Amino acid sequence: MKYKGGRWNYWWEEWIKPILIAAVLAFFIRTFVIQPFKIPSGSMYPTLKPGDRIFVGKFIYGAKVPLMNYRLPGISRPKPGDIVVFLSPVEKKKYLVKRFIAGAGETLRIKDGRVFVDGKESAAGPMKHFFYYNRGEYGAENRTIRVPEGCFYVLGDNSANSLDSRYWGFIPERNLVGKAVIIHWPIRRIRVLRNGD
Prior knowledge:
By secondary structure, the protein is of the alpha+beta class. The chain has a single domain (35-192), classed as Umud Fragment, subunit A (Ribbon), CATH 2.10.109.10. 16% of the residues lie in helices and 28% in strands. The strands form two sheets. Strands 1, 2, 3, 4, 9, 10, 11 and 12 form an eight-stranded antiparallel beta sheet that branches. Strands 7-6-5-8 form a four-stranded antiparallel beta sheet, with no helix packed on it.
């Protein structure tokens, strides 16, 4: 096939243009739709294991627009039991994955290994099967705390080995990245992550 304009048009049509389109699409999907993450620790064991690779749906809660303090409309709000990814409130540019426990305005207490939100035991997801230890300033025994406006509270499933809101408190909603939706690697662990997981 001959191209008008010679070799430049050939390179543009056959290589440069397709690569640019693919790069723009990849950027759009990663920024606004879905992003891959790798689980680095055992803080969410046994739900998520070190080395698991997950896809996180950014569109579910509404993706943040880069370089702007603006979030696109989402299709839902985080619910108790959701597995969420967010930017650490104490280590810049570090992503963490934990279980969403309570949102703005809700009260929370950890008693006898159980989590109580607004005075009622939370049985969201598999939380009723885990024992949550009273540790840290925000998870102390006999302490009831209220989640401030614009924030949320998270816990790791592996409570004995998880640095979470019990230690460093509340996460600003602006730090929320998205909801973990699929384990896509390794092959033997591929599955959709539902609220009951």
